[in-house]
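Q&A FORM
Asked by: J.P.
Topic: structure of Flagellar assembly factor FliW

PROVIDED:
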Amino acid sequence: MAREKEIEIQTRLGKQRILPSKVIYFPRGIMGFENQHEFTLLKLREDAPFLVLQSIDDARLGLLVADPYSFLSDYQIKVSDAEQKLLRLRNIRQVAVLVTVSIPPGQPDKTALNLSGPILVNHEAKLGLQVPQVEGKYPAQVYVHPQNETKVAAADARHPDDGGAENW
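REPLIED BY: S.T.
REPLY: Here is the structure written out as tokens.
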């Protein structure tokens, strides 16, 4: 079997080498970056709860993301039939759910998860899609630190499908 040749991409964190099989195609791009279609997930550290959804073509475009179920065990999203078809979903185990994370400069205690725009990744088909949640039972943002306004579930809660981002 031939070994896959790594590609080198530029990021704000410096040069990164990734396998082409780790490239995720977003047919609609990401909100605000609709012209960017190819991304990959980069680990910041092995023990960190966050990943970077990094554009392959734009070194400046890297979004901090996290598995929402690590913080909020009962998080639920609605995915339309059309969105499932676009993602080529046959089974819920094919998908990882991610949300963007915001950390205000100098205020890590105000780290928040954006629950209104989850990002779904079919890790088998290497397809991604941001799925806005218009009518959800959750606020747009949830703080990850319990001392803030919204209390969240314990950090050791896990997504029930075991198909999370750790597969990357």
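FOLLOW-UP: The first strand starts at residue 7 and ends at 11.
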